[in-house]
Amino acid sequence: MSLKTGDNSTNLIPILFKRVCEDCEVFLQNRLQNLYLNSTVDGKLEITWFDSDNQTGVTERGELLSVDEVENCVPVEVVSEEIDGDFVIDEVENCESEHLFVNDGDDFNDDDDDGEFEEISLKDIDEEAVRVSGVVEDKERSDNLMGEGSLGLMGEESEQARFLRVGRKKDFVHYEQFGWKKTNVLQGLELHTGVFNAEEQNKIVNYVYDLQRMGQAGKLRERTYSEPRKWMRGKGRVTIQLGCCYNYAVDKDGNPPGILREEDVDPLPSLFKSMIKRLVRWHVLPPTCIPNSCIVNIYDEGDCIPPHIDHHDFLRPFCTVSFLTECNILFGSSLKIAGPGEFSGPVKVALPVGSVLILNGNGADVAKHCVPAVPAKRISITFRKMDESKLPYKFQPDLELQGIQPIAKSLSLSKPSATPVVKEAASSAKQAVNQEATKEPVVSLFNFEDDFPALGSGMKPKPKRR
Length: 466
Ligand SMILES: O=C(O)CCC(=O)C(=O)O
Ligand SMILES: [Fe+2]
Hints:
Elements (H helix, E strand, L loop, with lengths): L8 H9 L4 H15 L10 E5 L4 E4 L4 E2 L1 H7 L4 E6 L2 E7 L3 H6 L7 E3 L5 E3 L5 H8 L6 H8 L12 H6 L2 E3 L5 E4 L2 E4 L5 E4 L4 H19 L8 E2 L11 E5 L3 E2 L10 E2 L10 H12 L11 E7 L5 E4 L9 E6 L3 E6 L3 E4 L2 E3 L2 E5 L4 E4 L1 H5 L2 E4 L6 E7 L35 H12 L1 E2 L32
Antiparallel strand pairs: 1-2, 2-3, 4-5, 6-7, 8-11, 9-10, 11-23, 12-13, 13-16, 14-15, 16-25, 17-24, 18-23, 18-25, 19-22, 19-24, 20-21, 22-26
Bound molecules: 2-oxoglutaric acid (AKG) and fe (ii) ion (FE2).
InterPro entries: AlkB-like, AlkB-like_sf, ALKBH9B/ALKBH10B-like, Oxoglu/Fe-dep_dioxygenase_dom
Family: Belongs to the alkB family.
GO molecular function, one term: demethylase activity
């Protein structure tokens, strides 16, 4: 971190951007934005940039902070408590918690050769839970889960029909000013609705409950299950980590934030691999970024996740799948504490159950996100691919997760197949977004349109810009 912007940092910008190609401009812009984020709050020193390699930070004014200074600085803004070796981040002003310290198949149905899709995954949940509990090497069962053994969740519908009904919103827009430049801090965000139907959600939720029971009974590996002490609203949430152990903040052993490579957690169970397969097959996640880890968040009423940017030990895009209760997720480069477990920010996106939110680009790296106190019990599963160089030492790549390919977008996609059902999905995705999250001015507008508009549906309306 040798760049010192100082008070005259904006003077550097025209020079930095001179004769720079478009790609480099985006890259530079992102870097600069990170430098500009999180200025002082109420006169307290905040760090705008955390260098995870050197464990140093940079203040808004470009001052380089040593490891010690970073450590001394952050507790001013971060309230966290250590619970069983894990830091549970509570009310956090401006997300510095995870951002700084942490630097932060579908085989629900499987396609067979004749082009029909047959339900394949989801075995008996109890059996599967036992399998996950440590008997994960049961390859035969795993094969069955991914192959035969259909529970018929797809019913009479083909995978193609289900795929067509997914609502997709990819045009989130909210401009924020960084120095002289306005940036869409939501660029890269996508909301896919109707990816998991009610029956599938039920299976997944019951499975999560089984995992939770096993965690409580000490039947999962030590770092897999974490249940915080709750002493007030907004405190903590249960987490189940699979595929890797993620450290939210420097822990009692002095481990830095990020993936703890030497720690062992339970691997992704087949059911979750089935979910991942669906996400890739249904064009929700790209085949180039297939997740190999996940964190299950179990929120009781009033639980929250404070503002943060997901650690860069995880690649982009990553995604979060919602269950049980619709809730809002807030986005913005600056998110504020509004009360115990309550936050405010410029953009509010509703997350319907069964939906998948993709975080990528600025939406993952410039805007912070948080889930304020949820109105009722909620579960989310965040799937992320680990950076190759950060894989746990004992990590075994999973063959089931290799070579997953998206299904072909058949010709029917371009037919006016925007049946009422499709429209319904579209409008529910549209309703899912509310940019009047707070009283703060909202400068962005967005338009919903399905990925696959009906023929003759005309040109894309352009997002309005200021
Ligand atoms: O619960 C959610 O939807 C968000 C979870 C999240 O931000 C995370 O796991 O990093
Ligand atoms: Fe997150």
